[in-house]
TrEMBL record:
Gene3D superfamilies: 1.10.1740.10, Winged helix-like DNA-binding domain superfamily/Winged helix DNA-binding domain. It comes from Anaeromicropila herbilytica. Keywords: DNA-binding, Sigma factor, Transcription, Transcription regulation. Pfam families: Sigma70_r2, Sigma70_r4_2. This is RNA polymerase sigma factor. The keyword Membrane does not apply. Residues 135-186 form the RNA polymerase sigma factor 70 region 4 type domain. One of its GO terms (molecular function) is sigma factor activity. InterPro entries: RNA_pol_sigma-70-like, RNA_pol_sigma-70_dom, RNA_pol_sigma70_r2, RNA_pol_sigma70_r4_t2, RNA_pol_sigma_r2, RNA_pol_sigma_r3/r4-like, WH-like_DNA-bd_sf. GO terms for biological process: DNA-templated transcription initiation.
Length: 197
């Protein structure tokens, strides 16, 4: 399965992928000055990471796309408020989390999330491999929110564990234990599913 393979990719590949995720803090200054090229650069660098992060919270493709768009709009309108602290992705994730939680509150008033809805909604634009969709479905179904965030940020977005810990504001040891606990749950679920075929 591609996601599990990508989880165990070499450190060289991971560091090359990670370089694409670097955000220079002056990018927000340029965005605040209405520099569309800077805004497009931010979008290119962070789109997949933000998608994975928001999906880990909302567990719904359409809602994730809505919140993703709202997040970029909020970043564009609030870029002048960004205070350089060496954590640009933490700021972006905070905006995305707040908008995701707002969406969840709104959605919970309207309806509830059903596993069948998730199964029928696996047309995620970033996941085209059938086996990856199966792993993603399992992650969305059986993992708790924090486990989903950590696994998706590591596997799909290529963040190192120390970056995930820093961006989510949790200790590295917690990040690692939740990652490994979540992986064990996924592997057990997928093995059980394979055996029951």
């Amino acid at each position: 399965m591609m996601i599990f393979c990508s989880i165990e990719e070499t450190s060289e590949k991971r560091s090359n992928h990670h370089k694409k995720l670097r955000i220079e803090e002056d990018l927000f200054i340029k965005i605040a000055d209405n520099d569309m090229e800077a805004f497009e650069e931010l979008y290119r660098i962070t789109e997949k990471s933000l998608y994975a992060f928001i999906l880990s919270i909302l567990r719904n493709h359409e809602d994730t796309l809505d919140v993703l768009q709202d997040t970029y709009l909020k970043i564009r309108s609030a870029a002048h408020l960004y205070k350089p602290m060496g954590k640009p992705m933490a700021w972006v994730f905070t905006i995305a989390r707040n908008l995701s939680m707002s969406k969840l509150r709104t959605r919970s008033r309207i309806d509830s999330i059903e596993v069948e809805d998730i199964e029928n909604d696996l047309s995620f634009s970033y996941v085209t491999n059938r086996e990856d969709k199966m792993v993603l479905q399992a992650a969305l179904t059986i993992l708790n929110e924090r486990e989903r965030e950590i696994i998706l940020l590591h596997a799909i977005s290529g963040f190192a564990f120390h970056e995930i810990a820093k961006n989510l504001g949790i200790p590295l040891s917690t990040t690692l234990s939740k990652y490994h606990r979540g992986l064990k749950k996924l592997k057990k679920y997928l093995l059980d599913k394979e055996v029951n075929k």
